[in-house]
Write a structure and sequence with these properties.
- The complex is a heterodimer of chains A (1017) and B (133).
- The longest helix of chain A has 19 residues.
- In chain A, the strands form 16 sheets. Chain A has a seven-stranded mixed sheet with strand order 15-21-16-17-18-19-20. Chain A has a five-stranded parallel sheet with strand order 5-2-1-13-23. A five-stranded parallel sheet of chain A has the order 31-30-29-35-46.
- Chain A is of the alpha/beta class.
- In chain A, strand 26, helix 13 and strand 27 form a beta-alpha-beta unit.
- With 133 residues, chain B is α/β, with parallel strands linked by helices.
- In chain B, strand 3, helix 3 and strand 4 form a beta-alpha-beta unit.
- In chain B, helix 1 packs across helix 4.
- The two termini of chain B are 14 Å apart.
Chain lengths: 1017, 133
């Protein structure tokens, strides 16, 4: 153990998937040195293999590639790929770790990923990245967008190694002379303060379920293989064909829960993501071929996440995907055509047979095999299923101090949950070494900006295929050829993915080669991708405002996918308009503003308190505003978690930590009165209601960031006679009954009926409330434990005990809790007769209505958005989604950010979630907010108004009009003239549009620029 | 007239309606392709000059879109757009241009389906009106 207090301002992140990459970016942006360790040659992980992501069907590579590029080029992230951890000494704050870097037999200092070697290499090998459906060479990069884009020699297959010194084609042809068969493995020793594990997942091996015939029948594939098949850069170039004969399938079956919820396979848990990814894959298949017949065979449809239920609905109603609740008996292959015969038992117990020509197995998630080895080296605890265990109420902390975990290494999760935990683990890693911030990092140094003033524009146009997202509809080559004919365009080309690392490098080369001084990118949406390209051109000395970005995907190919000719014509028009504007683009100098290093957290529940503690533990002042007179929020009504942890005790210690923390100022009984300012410089007035006087007091605070944690409310039902009979209660009321009356009447010999989805998944509230199934099972188990002779019935639509909670569903069934399914058109009815309560329901096996006397009816009520959401959304100018929850900047990769800089979100304000999920999200929000507070100054957009004092007559309209007091009339020798205070100006341009003298122009949205577009239409 | 493809400009603000248009894309909501989007930071940026010039150049219809009342990222830019829009409608009538060729709609970042509906309806109106000259 270390005895000194020395700490190291660096973090080791193990695993280069989306989790590891996000954690690395957050840490590095916050002022810490990061070593990102990845066992394969490239970062990217499983997300790089996915075709699209649910529920938005965003192209996975398109949203991932910019992150990979950012990590790869970050001055404070050192990628150590093709390497693994072999040893560790020291303790939290000061670890020494040893890493073994395998030899790629290519000198990566010299290799520039040009591809000559793998073009010429004669040896074909099954590609892991393509799940064995495609080939790679013995010298290769794992996938075209790999970061780093460096070649590796596969020693197992390379002729040089297999046949002792033969071949050497790659070595002879490599233009960079980078191939070197004598490079040895090497050990790297580094020192870090904290360690984050983000080793990700592997999919369940379906060979282990022999009834499905995977490996034996060519047309039985697993879901990850389908991702590759559907992908434009995949083994079949995005053509939906089946492996046996490369013909289009007509009838496809998905089989859910392969290797999940399966005691025999040793995976009792639910893998959480398979239902939604199957829906996604089915939708994508239908988009490839609308006449395809697609059936998903499932046990429970678990679309519990934000936006998933409506995705499910869309799949059924809009795409006509069939959903069948069934148990698959076996699959047989038909010799004549290699089609497949599915034998299954439907919900009514009938044995059925159906033929399909492709079967997709929705395989579950398991921890990466590396985890076992890592756990041994790092001395960590693993759960019975092999996931890394975390400590109570801190989902990203392992039992070993200083070592944190995120993503699927600790349980099955989807991408946004992984990204959330990645930021949360960065938060915890930072707390440990906060004193060492900025000690080991260096600043990004850009080359000086080239002065192009007075020069004729030289425009380069880059048109993205986005796989098939654009190129599947728009004729990209036609657009490129057209662009070449436009005035001042000196170069135009197409890219498979303009955002990938290799394309970014290439764009830089073309800027130099063709002396470009304006760049036009025609691709996806500037809202997500403009910053990446701006940075790229900046690296070549172009001011970032010399970029013009036009959207030919989201607003063209995706919405006109059945009209390729018109879409192509539109893309050309858009490129023409973009080039017209590019001619008028001007470089803008950066504006830096100071940052007030404190934060405002709105809401004092578990999320708000954890967010406040996160910022406070990073060393920043926090103001925590709670509307009620007590901290604690919804958790005040919860006693135990489903796995028996004591919530009351946790909450008490959390409240104490918050109230005694020197950096946190708590305002109870308080509301926001007004919010003004912008990132780094907010000014908020808080209205405090005096406890005794009932008089309001106003305080004004200044802060650099805002975290919204307003939570959600329990739905108060109007259904099932609630409120008309004291024996009809909600789950929350039941839990309070169970815990607050130790001597209360026994439930023994009583009949308790629970009804799920009350106020969720209905016409009024279409979303799933996520936690009610687990809540019902928790309470059912508590009753059975206390009074084993109680009869508990749970009426449900789908049981959604996702993840590890599945084992409690199983336990409830084993304990004798009876689960009865109901459909929307046959909901159970509750009625009273002669003072007794009854439930009327359809008995599924007898298929007739029955009446059952009951003692208690417990309604599993959903969660609804907090009533304050609308008001807060308007105060902060942030959006709500159609269900009334706050809408984050990006559903997959920016789960805790708002689109507005400096404002963040966590907890149930975002959507219903568990305590642990809320804690992780709160910690993530504080990590993200902390990035801003870690800087003394930040750059703001120089998109500000500018006054031409020659034209200005000092009328003062702009001063009155400006919502930010950015215009000020100043007396000059010619009389009054307006002056713009750039730091206040937010760039709306209202003043420019209103000036009667046309004396005001908006930088980057000048009259000339907009008029050029209008005229080019 | 079945081949008539009107020229339509849709001005979108960066925060609400442009994001709504993106959401329509993400949701693959199919719509008539005869429109071209110009993005500004705020609907309050749109100058009468842009609109009058566009009509002069033969654009058949112009759709202004912005955040819903109360939602404007810049507090009140959309109200300024609304005031200007009302004045412009009067001016267009004076100039003998059918004022249905200019329309203002509020579309939030969460309203992909509304974006689709607004676009399709507007293009339908303009198609019925026919070419401006």
């Amino acid at each position: 153990m270390n005895i000194s207090n020395r700490k190291v301002g660096a973090v080791l992140v193990i695993g280069g998937g989306i989790g590891g990459v996000q954690a690395s970016l957050d840490l590095a942006d916050s002022g810490f040195k990061v070593y990102l360790l990845e066992k394969t040659p490239s970062i990217g992980g499983v997300m790089a293999q996915l075709d699209k992501t649910f529920p938005t069907n965003d192209c996975s590579m398109c949203i991932l590639a910019p992150k990979l590029v950012s990590a790869g080029r970050h001055p404070n992230i050192e990628l150590i790929t093709y390497a693994e951890l072999v040893g560790i000494q020291g303790g939290p704050g000061d670890f020494s770790v040893q890493i073994l870097k395998r030899s790629p037999f290519v000198d990566w200092e010299k290799c520039n990923g040009c591809g000559v070697c793998w073009e010429k290499c004669p040896i074909m090998v099954d590609s892991d990245f393509e799940c064995g459906l495609g080939k790679r060479k013995a010298i290769y990069v794992p996938f075209p967008q790999a970061v780093p884009n460096k070649a590796v020699i596969d020693k197992e297959h390379c002729t040089y190694f297999v046949k002792g010194g033969k071949c050497r084609v790659c070595q002879i042809l490599c233009p960079a002379k980078a191939v070197d068969f004598n490079i040895p493995d090497k050990q790297i020793d580094i020192k870090v303060g904290s360690i984050i594990i983000g080793t990700g997942l592997k999919t369940f091996d379906p060979h282990l379920k022999s009834i499905f015939g995977y490996g034996k029948y060519a047309n039985v594939i697993k879901s990850i293989e389908l991702e590759r098949i559907l992908n434009a850069s995949g083994p079949f170039q995005g053509h939906l064909v089946r492996p046996s004969d490369r013909k289009e399938p007509h009838r496809v079956a998905f089989i859910q829960c392969v290797g999940s919820r399966d005691v025999k396979a040793g995976n009792n848990y639910c893998s959480s993501v398979c239902c939604v990814y199957a829906i996604k894959e089915a939708i994508l298949m239908k988009e490839h071929n609308r006449s395809l017949d697609c059936t998903i065979f499932y046990m429970d449809m678990r679309t519990f996440g934000k936006g998933f239920e409506s995705y499910y609905k869309r799949a059924k109603e809009k795409y006509g995907i069939k959903f069948k609740r069934a148990m698959i008996g076996e699959i047989l292959e038909l010799a004549e055509n290699r089609n497949l015969l599915l034998k299954y038992e439907d919900e009514d117990g009938n044995l059925k047979r159906e033929k399909f020509d492709l079967v997709v197995l929705s395989v579950g998630l398991k921890p990466d095999e590396n985890v076992k080895n890592l756990a041994e080296i790092l001395n960590l605890d693993l759960s019975e299923f092999g996931f890394i265990k975390s400590i109570h109420f801190s989902p990203v902390e392992t039992i070993r101090p200083g070592i944190f975990v995120c993503g699927t290494a600790s349980a099955p999760k989807d991408i946004p949950e992984t990204v959330t935990e990645a930021s949360a683990s960065a938060q915890k890693a930072i707390e440990l070494i906060k004193e060492e911030r900025h000690k080991l990092t260096r600043k990004i140094e850009y080359p000086g900006e080239v002065d192009f003033s007075g020069q004729q524009p030289r425009i380069g146009v880059f048109v993205c295929h986005c796989g098939i997202n654009i190129a599947g509809t728009v004729k990209v080559m036609e657009v490129v050829e057209y662009a070449k004919t436009l005035p001042n365009v000196v170069y135009a080309e197409n890219n498979l993915y303009s955002c990938s690392d290799d394309s970014q490098q290439h764009i830089k080369e073309m800027i130099e080669k063709h002396k470009l001084n304006r760049v036009v990118v025609a691709a996806c949406t500037p809202r997500t991708h403009e910053p990446l390209f701006q940075e790229t051109i900046r690296e070549k000395g172009l001011n970032k405002f010399l970029l013009e970005f036009t959207n030919i995907r989201d607003q063209c190919s995706w919405v006109h996918s059945h009209q390729p000719d018109l879409a192509t014509e539109k893309a050309k028009d858009l490129v023409r308009m973009a080039c017209a504007r590019a001619n008028h683009l001007e470089p803008l100098p950066t504006i830096t503003i100071p940052v007030t290093q404190s934060g405002l957290v709105i809401g004092g529940g578990i999320s708000g308190m954890n967010a406040a503690l996160g910022l406070a533990n990073q060393g920043y002042k926090v103001y925590l505003v709670e509307e009620k007179e007590e901290l604690g929020g919804n958790a005040r009504h919860i006693n135990r978690t489903i796995d028996g942890r004591n919530v009351k005790e946790y909450l008490q210690s959390l409240i104490k930590n918050v109230q005694t923390h020197p950096n946190i100022k708590v305002y109870k009984n308080s509301k926001l009165e007004s919010v003004s300012g912008y990132i780094g410089n907010f000014r908020t007035r808080i209205k405090i209601q005096g406890e005794e006087t009932k008089k309001n007091e106003l305080v004004e605070i200044e802060h650099g960031v805002i975290i919204v944690a307003t939570g959600a409310q329990e739905y108060k039902p109007t259904e099932y006679l609630y409120g008309k009979d004291s024996r009809i209660i909600t789950q929350r009321e039941l839990e309070e009954k169970i815990f607050s009356h130790p001597t209360m009447e026994s439930f023994n010999d009583k009949t308790i009926v629970m009804i799920q989805c009350v106020g969720s998944r209905d016409n009024e509230r279409k979303y799933c409330s996520r936690i009610c199934c687990s809540q019902a099972i928790k309470n059912a188990l508590l009753i059975k434990q206390k009074d084993p002779d109680a009869e508990v019935f749970i009426f449900y639509k789908d049981i959604r005990t996702y993840g590890i909670n599945e084992i409690f569903y199983q336990k409830a069934r084993d304990t004798g809790v009876i689960f009865v399914r109901y459909d929307d058109d046959a909901k159970p009815e509750i009625f009273g007769r002669n003072g007794a309560l009854f439930i009327k329901t359809k008995e599924p096996i007898l298929n007739e209505e029955i009446e059952l006397p009951v003692d208690f009816v417990v309604l599993s009520t959903g969660l609804i958005p907090d009533k304050s959401n609308r008001e807060i959304a308007q105060l902060l100018k942030v959006p709500l989604n159609e269900d009334g929850f706050f809408l984050e900047a990006h559903m997959k990769l920016r789960p805790v950010d708002f689109a507005t800089d400096g404002i963040f979100i966590c907890g149930m304000a975002h959507s219903p979630k568990t305590i642990d999920e809320s804690i992780a999200q709160a910690q993530a929000a504080s990590a993200r907010a902390g990035i801003i507070l870690s800087k003394d100054t930040i750059e703001v957009l120089p998109i500000v108004a500018e006054v031409d004092t020659e034209k200005c007559i000092g009328c003062g309209i702009c001063e009155k009009l400006c919502a930010y007091q950015a215009h000020e009339l100043k007396k000059t020798e010619k009389g009054y003239r307006s002056e713009v205070i750039s730091a206040y100006c937010k760039g709306c341009g209202s003043c420019a549009a209103s000036c009667p003298q046309m004396a005001i122009n908006m930088k980057h949205f000048t009259n000339e620029q907009i008029m050029a577009m209008v005229e080019a239409i | 007239m079945s081949d008539y493809k009107p020229k339509i400009i849709v001005f979108c603000c960066n925060w609400c309606s442009y994001a709504g248009a993106d959401l329509a894309g993400v949701s693959r909501l199919q719509m008539n392709p005869n429109f071209r989007i110009i993005r500004t930071m705020c609907s309050g940026r749109i100058e009468p000059e842009f609109i009058l010039t566009a009509f002069k150049k033969g654009v058949d219809g112009i759709l202004l879109t912005g955040c819903h009342p109360g939602d404007c990222h810049y507090i009140s830019g959309n109200y300024k757009a609304l005031r200007r829009y009302n004045a412009l409608k009067l001016l267009l009538k004076e100039m003998g241009i059918d004022d249905r060729r200019l329309k203002l709609e509020w579309i939030s970042a969460g309203e992909g389906a509304r974006f689709q509906e607004v676009i399709n309806n507007f293009i339908k109106t303009i198609t019925e009106l026919g070419p401006i000259v």
